[in-house]
Amino acid sequence: MGHQALERERSRSDSEYLQVPHLASGDMLREVCQQQTELGRQAVEYMQSGRLVPDEIVQEVVFSRLNELDCKQGYILDGFPRTQRQATLLDQRLDASGRPLSAVLEIRVPEDELLKRLASRGRQDDDRKIIQQRLQQYAEWTHPLLDYYRNRGILQVIDGLGNPDDVFTRILKVVDRISPEQVSQ
Ligand code: AMP
User: Fold this and answer.
1) Which regions in the chain score pLDDT beneath 50?
2) 12: CA distance to ligand 1 center in Å?
């Protein structure tokens, strides 16, 4: 199985195992870009240059998806939040519904491996300059969120090296350790 197929298999498996939908903000935004709407037109510009899409756009796309019926029992959010503003908005929303986050997983991969993986996806938004820009945006906006969640005691660090099956097994081990009380909160 090729790398991309394995990635798909893995992402299907985690959400199947937990029986909740896997919601990737990047996938949702790519769908929005396909639509001939003002929102899509704006999102395309940011994504093509490797910059983060503005919080208001991402929030609208992700939160409207969370309102759907299949999210009632929980969900895996992948790639969201990526800024402190998004994290705060998510907290506000979850606090209002009485179901705070159970866990945040950091899947940690050294930068050289990350570059290899990004380049091998072969997508239009993955060329070298754009990848550098994405890494810079990660360092500036997203990396600080690790402390935010670590201070709350819900950050779990997972070694992302190795093949997707190994990483998946590590994720399940961590998820299994999260108590049912935490998950059902
Ligand atoms: P990904 O598929 O997660 O690698 O995301 C691809 C691109 O979508 C990123 O480079 C951003 O431009 C945009 N994107 C995805 N998720 C977010 C987010 N939570 N906030 C802002 N931009 C995002």
Assistant:
1) 1-6, 184-185
2) 19
